[in-house]
Amino acid sequence: MSSAALTDLDGLPLLASLSHTHRAALAGISTREDFDPGTRLFEQGTSADRCWILLKGCAVVDSDAPGHGRMAVQSVGPGELLGWSWLLPPHRWHFGATVVSPTTAVVVDASELRKLADADPVLGYRLSLILVEALVSRLQATRIRLIDLHHNPGGH
């Protein structure tokens, strides 16, 4: 990964709790990629082998709803983490995701990230906190959406 991408990681509030050395290690197992709208990043049930940190653009997380097809669950935008299923066995996606606007992201190799976290407990702990914080934020957004849907059933 180029030093420009390391600069991208150094500037992300999401990774502020990581040392520069840890961000450099993360950059070493990552690539910076651009995605066009409509690009399918991953499918529910397939192998979770990477995660994305969006630098610009937007992706929509979706779920297969029997009898209804794909249903949008949440949008993920700049500075946010996309994809957590790589962390826990069996390392399969619980959702799917599609890019909906021109997007640039840091794409992290999940297998290598697990190795880094296992080898460095401080990094592993900090990554766990980042993931828990992202998960809590996502759960709060889902809760708000469910409350809104309950109070405005015909509005969505």
Notes on the protein architecture:
The chain is 37% helix and 31% strand. It has 156 residues and is of the alpha+beta class. The chain has one domain (3-151): Sandwich (Jelly Rolls), CATH 2.60.120.10. Strands 1, 2, 3, 4, 5 and 6 form a six-stranded antiparallel sheet that branches. A hairpin with a 3-residue loop joins strand 3 (50-65) and strand 4 (69-76). The longest helix has 31 residues, at 121-151. The mean pLDDT is 90. This is Cyclic nucleotide-binding domain-containing protein.
Strands, count:
6
Q: In DSSP terms, counting alpha (H) and pi (I) runs of 4 or more, how many helices?
A: 4
CATH architecture: Sandwich
Overall tally of domains: 1
> What is the level 1 CATH name?
Mainly Beta
Question: If you compute it from the alpha carbons, what radius of gyration comes out, rounded to the nearest whole angstrom?
Answer: 16 Å
Order of helices and strands: HHEEEEEEHH
Largest sheet: 6 strands, antiparallel
Low-confidence stretches: none
Gross morphology: globular
Pfam family, one: cNMP_binding
Domain Cyclic nucleotide-binding: 14-114
Protein name: Cyclic nucleotide-binding domain-containing protein
InterPro entries: cNMP-bd_dom, cNMP-bd_dom_sf, RmlC-like_jellyroll
Q: Any descriptors?
A:
single chain, 156 residues, alpha+beta, Jelly Rolls, six-stranded antiparallel sheet, 6 strands, 37% helix, 31% strand
